[in-house]
Amino acid sequence: MSSSLEKIFIGRLIGLDVFDPLGDRVGRLRDFVVLRRAPGGKRGGQVKRPIVVGMVVEVPGKRRVFVPMTRVTSMDSKRIVCTGLVNLRRFQQRGQETLVIGEMFDQHVALLDGSGTATIVDVAMERARSGDWQLTELFVRRASTTGGLMRRRPGETLVVDWEEARDLASVGPQAATQWVQAHEEDQPADMAEELHELSDKRKMEIAGELQDELLADVLQELPEEDQVYILTNLDVERAADVLEEMEPDDAADLLNELPDTQAEDLLQLMQPEEAEDVRRLLEYDEGTAGSMMTPVPIILSPETSVADALAAIRQEEVSPAVAAAVFVCRPPLETPTGRYLGMVHMQQLLRVPPPEPLGTMLDTSIEPVRDMAPISDVAKELATYDLTIIPVVNENRRLVGAVTIDDVLDDLLPDDWRTWDDGTPVRKVGRRYE
Fold it and tell me: Which domain holds residue 33?
């Protein structure tokens, strides 16, 4: 393999495009996989440095796959070229493997010259005479001042050989600053996919670094077992704060997986208004429209102007699916509302003068679904009328919420759909896939 760089710092490569020899883009580099050999072991008088065995590449479809280093033909600061067929099976980390970005960055080490401790900021790799790529140097930031002949400044950065530092990860929790910075432009679903592949310990370290709102968004994209593990291992007050940031239907689904006493404790710690929305969803049987609806769609009175309706849609916290329509009701406008009158689609709002009242343009042709209706009925209505959102009413025709197309898809897909491999044969049995 050729390389224009004798020494490569891995952090500078992350995000680079990976190409085949013909120049077609394969995907984007997300991480490197190394094998860490026994600490202190030697062979021929040399310390056993970790071997870089491959790359984690994100291919189209947001799938992360493994590409062996033996397939890499060239690598520089602008792009990576690999040869041969790429196995599109989803990457799964094995017991002896370590992810450089996911697990080594932010790791604590002791500097063996006695000058204190430091945190790994970046890692360099070089190609050995054997042809293997090995980790050879650490770019670190000092964590403390020390004695000795010279005082060292905290925050000072330096490069040390791999052999000049000792792993201190077992001493305490590892920071996740570098991991979060490396993924700050990722969508929550992409962050969740990578988080799912990490160890439980690393999951909690990263969860501790994320802001409540972002952690809530990421949790909603994780498989149930990961959601439960992270939530139940957070400080109970922070767990309640994160639940408040989640969509009420997602929070209700997560609380349904917890013991009743634990779920009630968290509800008691939540803000009363947020907890009330979640409690109402918990009252419905699983598989009904009421159990999966959002209880806070955009609800306005018939006197509201088009201008005010568009302002409500433009709010940052409103998701695209919810913003597809506003629902018009008689007061009170908090769910359960007064009598439901009809809906106004966003496209229609864009076609009429701003002062026009909503009551003059109601779409009453779309019949709302009942809160006790099965999901199959909701899916049929959404498909029949090409809708992304549909109103949900109770027996008194009061609006109690709305179901969006993404709610239905999440329910109809199997629990493990996020971890499917392309081409995996599946068989549908009832509402589940096997």
Answer: 7-38+47-99
